[in-house]
Amino acid sequence: xxxxxxxxxxxxxxxxxxxxxxxNIVSGAPLLVTREAVETxxxxxxxxxSGIANAATGERGIEDAYVMQSRAAEALGIxxxxxxxxxxxxxxxxxxxxxxxxxxxxxxxxxxxxxxxFAESILTTxxxxxxxxxRAEIGGRTITVGGTAKGSGMIHPNMGTMLAFLTTDAxxxxxxxKETLSRVTDRTFNRVTVxxxxxxxxxxxxMANGAAGNEPLTLDxxxxxxxxxxxxxxxxxxxxxxxxxxxxxxRLVEVAVEGAASxxxxxxxxxxxxxxxxxxxxxxxxxxxxxxVLTAMGNSGVTFDPGAVELWFGPIKVxxxxxxxxxxEAEANATLASGEVKxxxxxSEGDASATAWGCDLSYEYVRINGSYRT
Amino acid sequence: xxxxxxxxxxxxxxxxxxxxxxxNIVSGAPLLVTREAVETxxxxxxxxxSGIANAATGERGIEDAYVMQSRAAEALGIxxxxxxxxxxxxxxxxxxxxxxxxxxxxxxxxxxxxxxxFAESILTTxxxxxxxxxRAEIGGRTITVGGTAKGSGMIHPNMGTMLAFLTTDAxxxxxxxKETLSRVTDRTFNRVTVxxxxxxxxxxxxMANGAAGNEPLTLDxxxxxxxxxxxxxxxxxxxxxxxxxxxxxxRLVEVAVEGAASxxxxxxxxxxxxxxxxxxxxxxxxxxxxxxVLTAMGNSGVTFDPGAVELWFGPIKVxxxxxxxxxxEAEANATLASGEVKxxxxxSEGDASATAWGCDLSYEYVRINGSYRT
Lengths: 374, 374
Description:
homodimer; alpha+beta; five-stranded mixed β-sheet
């Protein structure tokens, strides 16, 4: 492949680690192994490969995932249960275990020597690495939350082919870490859609090793909201980058719904718009086709009064009171020409709001997915 | 536009008429008028236009739909309540009422003079007209069921931008006709998906004028199953033609699910596969990517054991017992090269089965929908 396709992430200190996994019934072998490790407690390393997902590979695939875990533990000098395994790529093919084992030894040898090796190793059809970090003060200590992710195709609410690894040096109690990752995933990664398909391989991990030396955080700590916000900021940045780098995407599309009856309704409405092939193709074609936005909302399963909806493309109001607002169409189309497109829908059902992220549907998406394996 | 875009369908005899409408919350003005007419009883004419959907056009759009109904009634010399109105096309623009009125007079003048004028008048991005008819014997009388439809984009289970008009000379009681259309729609039109979007304009009408002179049918008539089958055959043919002529489609994709726990589960599984962008793009690329089929099933919301699933592309078994069945990949890809692609999934959850129809996802779909209005 001519690029890195195996990576190790490792904390020298012990960690608290939380994880969330795909909701797809078809779940890859690595998820079984990682779920088990996270439940046992103490995961402080990740071994990840791209190219082959090790999903739909039967019993032998599960054995391969355990071997991968074991080889990584050996190379790092830690317990097997301390290693999470992640794979992404083609479904139904077995891992080339000799190359995997050699790759693990190689990666362990260069650990701590810098470089974006891990972020690169997890990419598939992604066009660039994704990473970010934020700092915050907690009880006089500076803590850092960092993260890297891959996305691209099969991305949809409820975790598409997405791998996200968040790390922090904050000290956080286990239950608190778990709740934080779950809440944040709901508000960030689960609001991204590229193509409506979900993958068997998706996971997000949040590892905290306590090196910052703060009093361990619980949900009740006065400083907890600062930590939660830092994690959400990292996750939101990664989620947006995943949407922006969707397969074949030329634009990031952000859909904001306001005035919904509940956050759940707002999320469903925003996701329905951002997932609509017709809306996505219209954005690609720079056609401010608000009829498709309204129709996608009507198709969301949420009940609302269409006559009370207001729609904007960027700052331009295009629909209100059940009919079009006269506007300069060229100007509305121009709001779709930049790299970031914002569509806003305001209802009069209540006070809830939500944002979802996606991308346009281009010729390139069809090209990539018409010839992924060949 | 250089093609017919207004049509009239008319029965000289009075009719029983049943109708089903879009489930989209955003519903076009013509649907309001047609629903009212069908509920009042006696609809025996349809006036339809393509190009503008008359949806999201406010109070004035509703007035326009009533005017359209009234002009058609006048031209045909019947009551307003006997006329159904259907519009399809761009959302949010008002109808050019002068042209519509002139078109109605013109169409009324050539009624009964043959030709596929009506079938052509309802097309939007469709590439060809769709029509079929079947004959059957009922109590010594020959009855005919015929139908025409348009589809193309915004097609999805629960009635995409689909118009379907079925007519029969059988005598059928009102309640029986209604139940027949509802059942048949569920098993045919609602199992078609082109792009997962639904439209505000969709409707299917079934008109029966009794000219065949049979004893009026009820659900309990010994001959009812013959009639129901005839209607279902017409609707299935139209549904398949809609899928085959999906926007940008190069192939009809038929997904059959067997061995499901319930018909509802089988439908959900089949629809999830046929609606998956990744499956659709793989078919376009002639890539027998069964991993995407399995994953789309896992993403359907239906619970099942993936390890007990068997998958076929055409006659070639590709997955069984939780892992790939060794097969000639070129041979499997070749099953995607013809105009009709068949994908079969067999579960071991029960005895229920269902079939759904769709099409591939091509560059042309993106081109059409990136430049529909412009």
